[in-house]
Amino acid sequence: MRLDCTMLNALLRHYDRNLKCFIFNGNSLYFSLVDVLLITGMPIDGRPVIGRIGKTENLFFNAFGIDPPPESLDGGRIRLSWLREKYSNNPVRPDEDGWAHYLRAYIMYVIGSYLIPDDCTGLVSAQYLGLLDNLQEVGSYAWGAAAWASLYNSLDRGIVNGLAYALMVFAIEHIKPLRIELIGETVDLPMECPLMVSWSHLLHKRLKANTVPKFGVYMQILGNVTDENFVQRPYERLSHTLLREGYERYALQLAKACSVTLCINYHIVVPHKPNNYARQFGFENIDLDSIPELPDVVVEVRKKGPKKDLNLADHGHFPLYINSWLGRFPLRGPRIGMFILVSLIFFNNSDFYSRTALPIFFF
């Protein structure tokens, strides 16, 4: 996957920090949990990515069975270069603990390089190691929702950090002139989820050859689009695919993807309000008065000064935030009603996540 940084820069110029959406020539587009789920395949439902922040050295030793070498850390963050050099080649005859060390290193590399990159390039926060003690539970976390929260936190700061490739696919799916500029009009669109896999094949040659449009071309396209140029609900073409083999991965989560909630990634809390852009999701007649108000996000959880163990679940307003996540309110309408109905009939099973979470995460 090659990033088109020129496109991302043009998209960033059209982001409205107050409305939390992209504005193109007066038209709004909202990058939501629906997009994260169908483009990346990562879970947007499950346990919030939150836990205890401990001493880096302890987290490191518990995860890898060794004291952290000086070249492995930069403050409370692990160098991706060290993970790559130390764990890129599988051991010849590993024991169970040895495999666990390599798997944790791989997951941390995915988190740091794509999922939730650190502002400082080439590093990943050691705090995520606290979620990897039991590798059987890794897929039970809502990684997609955490990445979504981190992306919007970075957009508010004027950068694109995390889910950058998914944001490119989102723009191509929704803005027809942009799609035509990149791949033409006659190419068959991807029909299977996660969409990012198929789109990476379609875009690979164009991006590898460095034949992408210049910044001015992107700005002209995005600045002149009309209402007719937008594909408001591009994923409708996927319904027949989702209702077959692939649907088990997405059924329950689609029911929550159009929900009003607070998405959490440790100290980052971001409101998810698809009701603000109901037309984009096919809910033109929603009773907005029935949707509960979200609590205000007023707490910066990360403490200043020396690091101490901190249980975020009990700190400040986080119990309120967690309750908002657990009791999130799905939008009501014919489309989401269909998703919920099919989910209840086929997949109302308590061990759903234990059977499907890892295949979703390791797309």
TrEMBL record:
<dbReference type="GO" id="GO:0010073">
    <property type="term" value="P:meristem maintenance"/>
</dbReference>
<feature type="domain" description="Aminotransferase-like plant mobile">
    <location>
        <begin position="4"/>
        <end position="285"/>
    </location>
</feature>
<protein>
    <recommendedName>
        <fullName>Aminotransferase-like plant mobile domain-containing protein</fullName>
    </recommendedName>
</protein>
<dbReference type="InterPro" id="IPR019557">
    <property type="entry name" value="AminoTfrase-like_pln_mobile"/>
</dbReference>
<dbReference type="InterPro" id="IPR044824">
    <property type="entry name" value="MAIN-like"/>
</dbReference>
<dbReference type="Pfam" id="PF10536">
    <property type="entry name" value="PMD"/>
</dbReference>
